[in-house]
Write a structure and sequence with these properties.
Radius of gyration: 18 Å
Distance between the termini: 15 Å
Largest sheet: 6 strands, antiparallel
Structural class: alpha+beta
Number of domains: 1
CATH topology: Phosphatase 2c, domain 1
CATH architecture: 4-Layer Sandwich
């Protein structure tokens, strides 16, 4: 497949049957994502918990809402505000669909054209993570919303909740997600947003669920992927998933590797 937004995309996912009996991850990637920008690309990884209800809804709804916001409101509100709105709208929709008990983290990345430059916009809730390789150095472009982060602990406590055993109310390890509506006063769907202008030094973007980051540091993952590409491994995402399982991850594993 010839891509217009990026050079190539590698994808892989694994239930990890030794430790998991269900697969609650999803991933999406769309070339020429916006009708107004044929060189735009959309890339996303979703990591569900408590069932697949929210994940199955998000896998098309979130990209639809992001596209709608960008195509109709980008000039008025800017990309970052459009992404925030799309996340919050999607979360409200999961409630209207009566998806009250399940939840999902997410990381979405957009490659957009702006003034003859390529810009990477990243948004996330929870601990699904995106890492950029800039000249071989790992640059995290998302933020892990976990109950071990002091700023999130303070927010939870200010909202009347508590963190016990690095879990919100002793239940969830993440502090932001889609769904989880019985805890919505504490578990927000407002994403962390970043933007970065891509240069010739930016060669790889990895988006992956925490099943990867539990056993790989950001730099280790970048080094592994760059080495695999140098060795002309056919699917470096599959190679990374295999390595995660060999290193003992106990979660579902989903990886997108985007050659920029």
């Amino acid at each position: 497949m010839a891509w217009s937004s990026v050079k190539h995309v590698h994808e892989a996912s694994e239930m990890n049957a030794l430790h998991r009996s269900t697969m609650e991850d999803e991933h999406r990637f769309i070339d020429s994502f916006l009708s107004t920008d044929e060189k735009s690309g959309f890339f996303a990884v979703y990591d569900g918990h408590g069932g697949r209800g929210v994940v199955d809804y998000l896998k098309t709804a979130l990209e639809r809402n992001i596209r709608t916001e960008l195509e109709y409101e980008r000039e008025n509100r800017g990309v970052e505000e459009c992404l925030i709105a799309a996340y919050l709208i999607s979360d409200i929709e999961t409630s209207r669909e009566n998806l009250l008990l399940s939840g999902s983290t997410a990381a979405t990345c957009l490659v957009l054209s702006e003034h003859n430059e390529r810009v990477l916009y990243s948004a996330n809730v929870g601990d699904t993570r995106a890492v950029l390789s800039r000249g071989g150095d790992a640059l995290r472009v998302t933020f892990d919303h976990k109950a071990s982060e002091q700023q999130e602990i303070k927010r939870i406590e200010a909202s009347g909740g508590f963190v016990r055993g690095k879990r919100v109310l002793g239940v969830l390890t993440v502090t932001r997600s889609f769904g989880d509506h019985t805890m919505k006063n504490l578990i927000l769907a407002k994403p962390y947003i970043s933007s970065i202008r891509l240069t010739s030094k930016d060669d790889i973007l990895i988006i992956a669920c925490d099943g990867v980051w539990d056993v790989f540091s950001d730099q280790e993952a970048i080094d592994f992927v760059r080495s695999a590409l140098e060795r002309r491994v056919t699917n470096v995402a599959a190679a990374l998933v295999k390595q995660c399982i060999e290193k003992g991850t106990t979660d579902n594993v989903t990886v997108l590797v985007i050659e920029l």
